[in-house]
Each structure stands twice: as C-alpha cells, then as structure tokens.
C-alpha cells in the first residue's frame, strides 16, 4: 500500500476489497473480458478536468494495485495538491484488462474525495482573513467516514469528532431527556475520563448562563443569526470555545467568521460536496 494518506491500512484495504466485490460480483468484468485481448498493454493517465484540490490519489493507486500488482504506477500529484484542468495525477502502464477493471472504483474514490477537499478549500478561503476554523461533522457516507474526514483535512479544514466515542456532544434531545443543560453536563463529567472534552449545543441565548455555570469546553451556537452570534460570544467572554453551526452556506460563512467564533462546522462538506471531474485517458 502507498503510505501517503493518513488512515489505517487495514481499513483502506477492506474498503477497496468491498468496493470491488460490489462491482465485480461473481463473474468479473464481463465487458472487458469479452472484448480486450489478454496480452493487450496500454498506458493510461488519470487527468483532472476541473480546478480544485486532489484527494484520494494514493488510494486510487492502491485500487489499481489491488486488481493487478504488476501494473507500473507513477504518481505526479499527492493528496492535498492544487490541481488544474489537464493536470495528470498519475500514470498507469500495464494490462489493459486490469486497468479497465480497476478504473471505476479508483475514480469513485478519488472523485468523491477530491470533491470534498475542493469544497472544503473553498470554505477555508472565505474565512482566511479571520481566526475561525472550518470543520466537518458526522454527516458522512456510512463506511467512508475516515476517508471523507481525511479529504476535509486535505482541503485545509479540521475534523470534528470522529464518532460517538471520542467526544461528548450534548444536543437538544439529550438535554430534554436528561432534564436540563446543567444536569446533562454534570452527568457527562461524572462518567467520562479527564481526556474527553464536553460540547453543548445552545439554540437560545437565554440558556447560555446555565451552560457556562457548568463549565463545558465548547459551546455550539446553533442556527443563530450573526447578531446573536456576536452577543453570545460577548456573554461567553472566553470561558469556552465557541462553535457556530447550522445552514452555513458558502456565501454566508465569511460573515459568520467575522463575528469572532472559533469554529464553524459545515455538514455540507461531506453530505453535499459535488463529485470532482476526473477522467482516465488511454
């Protein structure tokens, strides 16, 4: 495996294997097997057809190598690189059958991840004049979270919690079921270890003082206008990190950042990023 993307090698291999099991079924690539001579050799190039940020390049190379270890693969771009139309990300030489069979899975991964990285970079550029950081959420494709969160990092963003297991995130339904903001924070602190941070979601400024009295590490100001964000930051006064969330469009994100929030979480980085246009050309 190419050690160029930051995820567990076993997980990557499992994702690739499952993708090819889905695509090949029991019979394999019947079109390629029926039309391409077994001894046909070609050179193929993975080319960008738009401007953006590359991601999934190393993973795409692993996809080709998974199908045929005999392929000669040269990488010209790495994950996180800016790319322009006609840029060549990699060149693959070897069995035409192997390259054609591997093509779609490799493009599915790299197109999806480059799309996320590119959209993230667009958001990051909008807030570059501020101290706010763009981060992702758990609104990811089931099974692909590690890859999609890596793509956010390649685009210059930050990762929020990876799952339900690595941070406490107290939302409105937790508060309702627990009986109050303070009770929820206190119960969480009694149960978790000292290394785990606590974040609480607030959708009314009137609830801020109760939350602050119980010392959460992060306060999420959810679905608030910019005036309310400014007022909330003034009330918090440095006693907790401040995260803004909810309907964060690319057009609005700069004005949100200018309120002085520390973090802006954007679900659409992963749930609505368009696929990046890549093509494999012989």
Write a structural description.
With 282 residues, the protein is of the alpha/beta class. It is 42% helix and 18% strand. It is built from eleven helices and twelve strands. The mean pLDDT is 95.
Secondary structure topology:
Blueprint (H helix, E strand, L loop, with lengths): L8 H16 L5 H6 L5 E8 L3 E2 L3 H11 L4 E4 L6 E2 L4 E8 H31 L6 E3 L9 H10 L13 E3 L1 H7 L2 H11 L6 E5 L5 H6 L4 E5 L3 H11 L4 E5 L7 H5 L5 E3 L2 H4 L6 E4 L1
Figure out the total of helices.
Answer: 11
The residue fraction in helices comes out at 40-55%
Number of DSSP E strands = 12
Order of neighbouring strands in the sheet with most strands: 6-11-10-9-8-7
State the gist of this model:
This protein is of the alpha/beta class.
Main features:
11 helices, alpha/beta, 4-stranded antiparallel sheet, 12 strands, 6-stranded parallel sheet, 282 residues
